[in-house]
Write a structure and sequence with these properties.
This protein is mainly alpha-helical. The protein has one domain: Na+/H+ antiporter like fold, CATH 1.20.1530.20. The chain is built from 17 helices and no strands. The chain is globular and about 65 Å long. The relative contact order is 0.18. The N terminus is likely disordered.
C-alpha cells in the first residue's frame, strides 16, 4: 500500500486513493476547459501561450529550485528541483473566475487558460526526472530528460488528438442522425477524458496533456461540444475537485504545526517572485502593458495540479531526507494560494479592467476587448 500523505484516519483515505481521485477531477476539468477554448481566438493570440509554457515554465522551475536551495539549505539540488516542479503548474479550477471573466481581454484569459491546461502535464517529466536523480536511479542525464519529455508530451498529444477527433466525429454523426438524446450526449462526452486517462496510462503518456488536447480537438468535428455537452463533465469534475480540497483542508489543519518560518517564506516567494519574474521575462517583446504582465504573473494559482504532483512524488516511496519539508511546503503554498488568489480575483479583475480601459486603442489588450 502506498504511504499516506494526506491521510484522514477516520475515513481510511490512502495516498493512492487520494491520487486517483485528484487525477480524475483534474482530467475532467482540463477537458472541459479546453472544449470551451475558442480555437479561432487561440490562433489569433499567436505565441503568447507558447511563451508561458516554454520560457515561463522553465524559468519558474529553475528559479523555484534556486530559491528552494536558499530557503532550505538542507535540500539537495534534486530535492529542490522536485519542490520547484511540484509547484510550477497553475490551477485551471482556481483560476476559472479570471479566464471566464469578460472584463479580462480575450488574449490574456485564453493564454492563461491554455497555460493552466498544459503546464501540469509538462511539469510531470521534470518532476519524475528530478525524482529519479534524487534516488540515483537514472543514467544519461539531459538526454534521458529530453527523451522522457518527448515521450510524455508527444504521446500525450497523439492520444488526445485521436480521442478528440474520433470521439467528436462519432458524436457529430450520432447527433445528426438523432441517435442520442441530449442527456446521453453529456454522458458520451464525459467518457472521452476518461478514455484519455486510460489510454495515456497504457502507453506511459501524460493523461493531463491528452485530456486538454482532446478537449481542443473535439471542437474540430463537433463544434457544439462546449455549448451543449460539457455540463455533465464540468459538474462531476467540480464535485471531485471539491472532495479533494475538502480532504486536503482536513490534513492541513492536522499538520499546521509543521509549517515552519522557512516554509512560510518559500510559499510566499513561490506565489510572487518565483511565478511573476519568469512570466515577465517570457512576455518581453509582446507589447503587453505592465498591468497585463503583473496581472498574468499574479494570477497563477496553485491548487489541484500541485496536489496531484505532490501525491505522485510521495507515492514513489523515495523516503528522501527532506520529504517532510517538501510535503509541508507544497501544502502551505496551496493553502495560501487558495485564499490569496480567491480573495484577490474580483478586486484584481476590476482594477485591471480599469487599467486596460485607460490604454491607447492600439494596445494589444484593447484589440481583444469585447470579443
Amino acid at each position: 500500500m502506498s504511504p499516506v500523505w494526506m491521510h484522514v484516519a477516520e475515513a481510511g483515505v490512502t495516498a493512492n486513493v487520494f491520487l486517483r481521485l485528484a487525477e480524475l477531477g483534474l482530467v475532467l476539468l482540463l477537458f472541459t476547459d479546453a472544449s470551451r477554448t475558442d480555437l479561432t481566438v487561440l490562433r489569433r493570440i499567436g505565441t503568447l501561450p507558447g511563451r508561458l509554457l516554454s520560457t515561463g515554465l522553465l524559468l519558474t522551475i529553475l528559479l523555484g529550485g534556486i530559491v528552494a536551495r536558499l530557503v532550505f539549505p538542507e535540500l539537495s539540488i534534486w530535492e529542490a528541483g522536485i519542490l520547484a516542479a511540484i509547484l510550477a503548474p497553475t490551477d485551471a479550477g482556481l483560476g476559472q473566475i479570471v479566464v471566464s471573466s469578460l472584463r479580462v481581454p480575450m488574449r490574456v484569459r485564453q493564454a492563461l487558460n491554455v497555460e493552466a491546461g498544459l503546464n501540469d502535464g509538462l511539469s510531470v517529466p521534470f518532476l519524475l526526472f528530478f525524482m529519479a536523480l534524487a534516488a540515483a536511479k537514472i543514467e544519461g542525464g539531459a538526454a534521458s530528460l529530453l527523451q522522457f519529455i518527448g515521450e510524455q508530451l508527444g504521446l500525450g498529444v497523439v492520444v488526445g488528438m485521436a480521442v478528440g477527433l474520433v470521439g467528436g466525429w462519432l458524436l457529430r454523426a450520432a447527433t445528426r442522425r438523432d441517435w442520442l438524446a441530449e442527456s446521453f450526449q453529456q454522458i458520451a462526452v464525459v467518457t472521452l477524458p476518461l478514455l484519455c486517462l486510460a489510454l495515456a496510462e497504457m502507453v506511459d503518456a501524460s493523461m493531463f496533456i491528452a485530456s486538454f488536447v482532446a478537449g481542443l480537438a473535439i471542437q474540430i468535428p463537433f463544434k457544439d461540444a462546449g455549448k451543449h455537452s460539457v455540463e455533465f463533465a464540468e459538474e462531476w469534475g467540480q464535485i471531485l475537485n471539491l472532495a479533494v480540497f475538502f480532504l486536503f483542508g482536513m490534513v492541513v489543519v492536522r499538520d499546521w504545526a509543521q509549517f515552519t518560518p522557512a516554509t512560510w517564506v518559500y510559499a510566499i516567494l513561490s506565489l510572487t517572485v518565483v511565478r511573476m519574474l519568469p512570466v515577465a521575462v517570457a512576455l518581453l517583446g509582446t507589447r503587453l502593458s505592465l498591468p497585463s504582465v503583473l496581472f498574468m504573473g499574479w494570477f497563477g494559482p496553485r491548487g489541484l495540479a500541485s496536489i496531484v504532483l505532490g501525491l505522485v512524488y510521495l507515492e514513489q516511496e523515495l523516503h528522501l531526507p527532506s520529504e517532510s519539508a517538501i510535503r509541508a511546503t507544497v501544502m502551505l503554498t496551496v493553502v495560501l494560494s487558495i485564499f490569496a488568489h480567491g480573495l484577490s480575483a474580483m478586486p484584481g479583475i476590476s482594477i485591471y479592467a480599469r487599467k486596460v480601459a485607460a490604454l491607447n486603442s492600439s494596445a494589444p489588450e484593447c484589440q481583444e476587448l469585447g470579443t
